[in-house]
Write a structure and sequence with these properties.
Layout (H helix, E strand, L loop, with lengths): L1 H18 L19 E9 L10 E6 L5 E6 L5 E7 L2 E8 L6 E2 L3 E3 L5 E9 L18 E3 L4 E3 L12 H5 L5 E3 L5 E3 L5 E5 L2 E2 L7 H6 L6 E7 L13 E7 L6 E10 L3 E12 L2 E12 L2 E11 L6 E25 L4 E26 L4 E27 L6 E23 L6 E23 L4 E24 L4 E4 L5 E20 L3 E18 L6 E17 L5 E11 L3 H4 L10 E3 L8 E14 L2 E13 L2 E7 L5 E7 L2 E3 L1
């Protein structure tokens, strides 16, 4: 395993050295933009005659080289405007307002040495116009279709204001969100969810609950990647959903408060931002809770394995409530034009409590069993965690040439308790028991990414990644002792489960521009996984290793300025989550239990797709055909014990074709 991984890294390193050019070398054609430099252009628009400010004047930012519009804004009540986070290069401005002649500026050059341009006062000359000849046009910018992903610009959609991430994702093409906030992509829930391009421990539990804790106003955009390139982790058989959060960099201090109250859930958020020159600090906090939610459920099972059927029938009523806070503090500092540091730390929590009353009957005519019983169950869980990530980015004079070192630590602590009191017409039905499960999840990630533009048409991306995951599950079962008037631990059903999952990865990918119409992204990723599971008291343990080569290719054909067609193939894997592996048995219902299987293997998926997108009179149309085959599918597997208990576990079963 290690030799194959080292071989891959050596091959990637050799490939980089073969094509790398020394830092600072500028390709033929002159100086090009440096993606690591961010600058700004500002000014004030005045009436040339009255010397008064012109409010709400339209200011369009234009690339001086291509003539393409890069951005646009309007002047404020003081006639001021400002464009931020601009790459080094040459720009022009076009200023216009009804009743004035359109004004274009001469070229404005931003360089790494002088990235900011204060234009001072810009004057518009008045003119008389025929208002009947004025035509107002616009183009929806909420959705962008790029060669490797579909981008939904949430900040341009005001309908999600006051909501959370689940509300935003409901608006994204290809995604579906159910009533509980659970996310699926083209019918599959095997998705890798990222925040700013990085995995987060916030999604290690219930993704639906996690999405509710992210306020909608903190989301800048959402990227949907159905055929990820080799640069992305191999996990997520259906694809990747990347949530990009806002980074405010307006000089000075800004802040906002949002809240909403609804019949199902309520949330609030606070955002504070400070920026000064090349330094910025962002603080975002928020939380949500729902009103106590009533529930009703029924369960019926008929077991015909004997001469006469055995029947279990249950009806339950109850209520539950949920809440979750989240706070994120992030900072960025551009040391100079070519070096920058970003760091972010977030803290999260999630709590749940509920109570249920169940009336049940169990009959087994083969042995004359007729049980009638009532069960009162209560559960409470609380989970807290953090993510801390730091990136160092080194850029060079050549556009797109960059080196990134990244480090991330994620941790989660959880505590869950279930308690049951049961009585019925058979003394053997009497129960007064509870079980506890305390879990710790720690994950460390180290990553290096290198992007090298070989020329204007060929770009190489390569890198390596190491993920170290450690999970402990301390579970205990306790029965109430009438003699001791307290709960006593059942040591035969209590233990500590230690689980280790380490992943080493290396990748190489090439981005080619084939003329003006064609684009190609092709590459491969190698991932080596090591698993180990052990118990504190039980002598049973297991070890497993597996290697995966994950090729991917995307070919894009631009039909015209608004339409394109894309062909893609990707091989993906889905490692089993802790829910599938954890041997902890939750006894909320002693007749229907779920237990993990530590030996479950990952799913492997091959996906082929053709997508067509176009823009027709303000409507974005995306259509596609895809074929997805998943091997070693992880499915729930039900067995029934001789005592009539349904035992749900997980196994790799068969092939799934979509």
């Amino acid at each position: 395993m290690n030799l194959r991984f080292l071989f891959t890294l050596l091959a990637v390193t050799s490939f980089v050295k073969l094509f790398a050019q020394p830092p600072g070398v500028v390709p033929s054609g002159g100086f090009s933009q440096n993606v690591g430099v961010t600058g700004k252009i500002m000014g004030v628009v005045l009436d040339s005659t009255a010397r008064l400010v012109v409010e709400f004047a339209t200011v369009v930012l234009i690339d001086a080289k291509t003539g393409a519009q890069k951005d646009g804004t309007t002047t404020d009540e003081k006639g001021s405007f400002k464009f931020l986070n601009l790459k080094a290069g040459k720009y022009r401005l076009s200023l216009s307002f009804i009743g004035y002649k359109t004004k274009s500026t001469s070229d404005i050059e931003l360089t790494p040495q002088k990235p900011d341009a204060d234009l001072g006062s810009l004057f518009l000359a008045s003119e008389s116009i025929d208002l009947s000849a004025v035509e107002v046009t616009g183009e929806a910018g909420a959705i962008e279709n790029k060669i490797d992903k579909l981008v939904y610009n949430a900040e341009k959609d005001l309908t999600t204001a006051g909501g959370n991430a689940a509300d935003v994702l409901q608006r994204v093409p290809l995604l579906a969100v159910d009533a509980e906030g659970n996310l699926s992509l083209r019918g599959s829930s095997n998705i890798q969810i990222l925040i700013n391009g990085k995995p987060s421990g916030i999604f290690s539990g219930n993704p639906g609950d996690a999405l509710k804790s992210i306020p909608a106003d903190q989301i800048k955009s959402v990227e949907v990647i159905t055929s990820p390139s080799a640069r992305y982790d191999g996990e997520g058989t259906a694809g990747i959903v990347n949530i990009i959060t806002k980074r405010k960099s307006v000089d000075g201090f800004t802040g906002s408060i949002n809240s909403s109250v609804g019949t199902r859930s309520n949330n609030g958020s606070l955002s504070m931002n400070y920026a000064k020159g090349r330094f910025g600090l962002n603080l975002n906090g928020g939380g949500w809770f729902n009103w106590p939610r009533p529930s009703f459920s029924s369960f019926y099972r008929e077991d015909r394995s004997g001469v006469l059927p055995k029947i279990l029938s249950q009806t339950s009523t109850g209520s539950s409530s949920f809440y979750g806070p989240r706070v994120t503090l992030s900072a960025f500092y551009d040391l100079n034009a070519y070096n920058s540091i970003n760091s972010s730390v977030s803290f999260r929590g999630f709590g749940r409590s509920g109570e249920n009353i169940t009336d049940a009957t169990y009959t087994d005519p083969n042995f004359g069993v007729n049980q009638i019983y009532t069960r009162n169950s209560s559960n409470a869980s609380i989970r807290g965690g953090f993510d801390w990530s730091t990136d160092y980015r080194k850029t060079f004079k050549t556009a797109g040439h960059e080196l990134i070192f990244a480090f991330q630590v994620s941790g989660d602590v959880s505590d869950q308790t279930n308690e049951i009191v049961q009585s019925g017409n058979d003394p053997g039905l009497s129960l007064n028991t509870k079980n506890d499960n305390a879990g710790i999840n720690l994950e460390n990630t180290f990553q290096i990414d290198y992007v090298l533009p070989i020329n204007k048409k060929i770009t190489l991306e390569t890198g390596t990644k190491l993920i170290l995951r450690d999970i402990d599950s301390d579970f205990a079962y306790k029965n109430y002792s009438n003699d001791l008037k307290n709960f006593v631990t059942d040591i035969t059903r209590s233990d500590i489960f230690f689980y280790v999952q380490n992943v080493m990865a290396g990748y190489a990918s090439v981005n080619l521009k084939l003329g003006d119409k064609w684009g190609l992204i092709a590459g491969s990723r190698y991932e080596s996984t090591f698993l180990n599971g052990d118990y504190d008291k039980n002598e049973v343990s297991f070890t497993n290793t597996y290697d995966n080569f994950l090729p991917s290719v995307t070919l894009n054909r631009k039909l015209n300025s608004l339409s394109n067609i894309k062909f893609s193939y990707a091989k993906r894997i889905q490692r089993p989550s802790l829910r599938y592996i954890n041997p902890y048995v939750e006894i909320e219902d002693p007749r229907d239990v779920t237990v993990g299987n530590p030996e479950v293997e990952p799913e492997n998926t091959d996906q082929y797709e053709i997508n067509y997108s176009t823009f027709v009179k303000g409507i974005v149309i995306n259509s596609g055909i895809f074929y997805r085959q998943t091997n070693d599918v992880i499915e729930s597997f039900l067995t029934i014990s001789k005592e009539g208990v349904s035992i749900n576990s997980f196994r790799n079963i068969g092939i799934n074709r979509n």
